[in-house]
Amino acid sequence: MKVVKFGGSSLASAEQVRKVCDIVLSDPDRKIVVVSAPGKRDKADTKVTDLLIAAANARLGGQPGAVEIDRVIERYASIAAELGLPEGSTDDIAADLRARLAMDTADAGLYLDTLKAAGEDNCAKLVATYLRAQGVDAHYVDPRDAGMVLSEESGNARVLEESYARLSTLRDMPGLLIFPGFFGYSRSGKVVTFPRGGSDITGAILARAASADVYENFTDVDSVFAASPAIVAHPEAVTEITYREMRELSYAGFSVFHDEALEPVFHAGITVNIKNTNNPAAPGTRIVAQRAVAPHRPVVGIAASRGFCSVYISKYMMNREIGFGRRLLQIFEEEGLSFEHMPSGIDNISVIVPESAFTTTVEEHVLGRISRELDADDVSAA
Ligand code: ASP
Predict the structure, then answer these.
(1) Which single residue of 63, 116, 298, 323 could bond 58 by disulfide (Cβ 3.0 to 4.6 Å)?
(2) Could you tell me if residue 265 is inside a domain?
(3) Whole-model pTM?
(4) Is the shortest distance between the CB of 180 and ligand 1 below 6 Å?
């Protein structure tokens, strides 16, 4: 049994939705289908999720947000029309989007997540409607009914352990199941979303819950590459990569697969197969516990990302001062800063922190503490 997830570019237009349905129907093992919201049709286009965020922010800022919502409604209507669905088949979607926009905005996090979740939710309904129109026994699954219970952290939710037992019943439900990615419900019944790109996480959770043999993750590239094709010409395709390597590279800048999506499948030992909706015959990249192909190759890929700040500390004879590293990190801990890396030399050490948390005020305060409390010779941030 396979859980299959399709990303936004795989659902951006009617032509893409048709490809998705052909892929799903070409293999009877594909039982649970997770969908993202329609993504960009071309480079200049806007993702449905970004339009929904713009609509929510408009209303939260006292504007109507109607222009943005109308663009979303139009996206679904044009996909449905091009798929040959009868007129009026997206009326429910339009009503749902308008109702969400009109909701009370007092709880800004809940309001934003309710709008963001609409992208995937309505996409799943549309795909199920289209499949049923083709005579397929397909069903939209409501994450609330299915038991996708998440922590109450707007825009940054995590799955709660109790979800797995509840979601395991999906395996025995009849027909093809179309499940919206990216969101679930808190114990108190509020809509909550995962971080951006979180439909990958939904797919991984369902793969573990339903004990899938494989989790197929369809995107718009033939495979993961050893380096970014935007920077390196013709990088080598990676056919196999371990969970650990993939998580490290996703965290460091690979954008193909969400770094938090590996946890559920890693624990269950389920193979992830990253494949291309536009070229489903290509074998793609397999994420496994142990590499069978080139198991001793030391470097599988190189990734990079921006947005970090380096705090440099030097002190003569630092290497002889036991406890220096602990006291240094304690300052970061006490200031509520998480650190990413800590390269060091004999008399110097750098602490790499996310730039977003390191405002000018925080920087001045932290540098001051380091130089006073650790009696450092030199402290600077870049
Ligand atoms: N639609 C959401 C986003 O754009 C989630 C996803 O595509 O995985 O972040």
Answers:
(1) 63
(2) no
(3) 0.89
(4) no
What spacing in Å lies between the alpha carbon of 200 and ligand 1's midpoint? 9
What's the length of the chain? 382
* CB of 199 closer than 6 angstroms to any ligand 1 atom: yes
Does ligand 1 come within 6 angstroms of the Cβ of 181?
yes
272 C-alpha vs ligand 1 centroid, how far in Å?
19
Burial class (CB in 10 A: 0-12, 13-18, 19+), 178: buried
Of the residues 220, 242, 260, which one is the last residue of a structural domain? 220
- Angstrom distance (rounded) from CA 35 to CA 371: 51
**Residue 263: inside a domain:** no
Tell me, yes or no, whether 59 lies in a domain. Answer: yes
SS3 140: strand
- CATH number of the domain residue 11 falls in: 3.40.1160.10
User: What is the Å distance from ligand 1's center to 235 Cα?
Assistant: 26
Give Cβ neighbours of residue 88 (< 8 Å, ≥ 6 apart). Answer: none
Q: Which domain holds residue 216?
A: 2-220
Q: Are residues 61 and 189 in the same domain?
A: yes
Residue 342 belongs to a domain with what CATH number? 3.30.2130.10
Q: Answer for the pair 202, 179: CB distance below 8 angstroms, yes or no.
A: yes
Q: Is residue 231 one of the residues assigned to a domain?
A: no
| Residue pLDDT tens, the chain, 382 long | 999 999 999 999 999 999 999 999 999 999 999 999 999 999 999 999 999 999 999 999 999 999 999 999 999 999 999 999 999 999 999 999 999 999 999 999 999 999 999 999 999 999 999 999 999 999 999 999 999 999 999 999 999 999 999 999 999 999 999 999 999 999 999 999 999 999 999 999 999 999 999 999 999 999 999 998 889 999 999 999 999 999 889 888 887 888 889 999 998 999 999 999 999 999 999 999 999 877 788 899 999 888 999 999 999 999 999 999 999 999 999 999 999 999 999 999 999 999 998 999 999 999 999 999 999 999 999 9
Phi, psi dihedral angles at 308 (to 5 degrees): -120, 160
Nearest to 210 by CA among 11, 33, 24: 33
CA distances from 354 to 41, 134, 338, 351 (A): 32, 49, 8, 10
Which atom of ligand 1 approaches the CA of 120 most closely? 1
Split into its structural domains, the chain has a count of: 2
